[in-house]
């Protein structure tokens, strides 16, 4: 018996407009309090969660999309949440998109969205808030697969065709799950098909999803017990999670100097709020936010450099290595000076070797010397410059 299958992936789109009436009342809610509206779009049931006061970033409202708890299947989708003007058009400055497909867990176990949807003060003074109401629209694109399975019995005389319609596209689009875990029943428990083939019990174990649950804790602020202020912005977090991921946070929250007490408010200096926000996302999710991954080259280099410094500062080694790898891909004549200086200052040996190798190749050194980045290298890391010149002399 021979089987073959063909999967056709298609997109199913849908939109929903939510009117939030009584804004002045909702903004008085406590941090982390949300209001939700259930709707159907793109063939699935969803919840749009509105946080009048984002629990993780002070001064902002937040919007999140979540599968309805009644949905028992994974759903993979891209989506955009937009503030609407009163002509029904999306406001460009307040249109936020998840451009890479996100797989939502079943039963509403996780959600995705934007903790910085719009600043409350900006919404209050805008024309989009009228008669104490404003409107938002969510546009959803769900990826679904139609699978056709053909079974041909020995001899090719019979062909059975089964269509599995609208199967959810999950790991094939995002991250491949581990191989299915197969359990073969004992001989006493075997059953037989009509053609005599033995049936085995196959249990498919889903991929790990702890990051989704921890990510939900961060985005919802549930159980948060520490407020971290960075560059004027406030972030809510959980001391135990920060301590588990960073030896520096562990020492700060649970070190011997605390004598049984642990701070509930922390101020971090010499770091931009946007960098700490990405650092915090990584601590909870073990991955970078989609909008950081999709940044343009100059923005990506800048964020990777600042994030590497932050990761080194808090002892988050995997993130530091990810930043090294990111910067390695951007080594060029205009950037090599600053990247080499950063590698030297933060003990990134692999990145340093890559920069030196680049400078010793062809005319790269001559071109790099004329850049501001090379001036920065000469002033901040003169020993590296001497090392480079000694290698060139050889």
TrEMBL record:
<feature type="domain" description="BTB">
    <location>
        <begin position="224"/>
        <end position="292"/>
    </location>
</feature>
<dbReference type="Pfam" id="PF24570">
    <property type="entry name" value="BACK_BPM_SPOP"/>
</dbReference>
<dbReference type="InterPro" id="IPR000210">
    <property type="entry name" value="BTB/POZ_dom"/>
</dbReference>
<comment type="pathway">
    <text>Protein modification; protein ubiquitination.</text>
</comment>
<protein>
    <submittedName>
        <fullName>Uncharacterized protein</fullName>
    </submittedName>
</protein>
<dbReference type="Pfam" id="PF00651">
    <property type="entry name" value="BTB"/>
</dbReference>
<dbReference type="InterPro" id="IPR056423">
    <property type="entry name" value="BACK_BPM_SPOP"/>
</dbReference>
<dbReference type="InterPro" id="IPR008974">
    <property type="entry name" value="TRAF-like"/>
</dbReference>
<dbReference type="InterPro" id="IPR045005">
    <property type="entry name" value="BPM1-6"/>
</dbReference>
<dbReference type="Pfam" id="PF22486">
    <property type="entry name" value="MATH_2"/>
</dbReference>
<comment type="similarity">
    <text>Belongs to the Tdpoz family.</text>
</comment>
<dbReference type="InterPro" id="IPR002083">
    <property type="entry name" value="MATH/TRAF_dom"/>
</dbReference>
<dbReference type="InterPro" id="IPR011333">
    <property type="entry name" value="SKP1/BTB/POZ_sf"/>
</dbReference>
<dbReference type="GO" id="GO:0016567">
    <property type="term" value="P:protein ubiquitination"/>
</dbReference>
<feature type="domain" description="MATH">
    <location>
        <begin position="13"/>
        <end position="140"/>
    </location>
</feature>
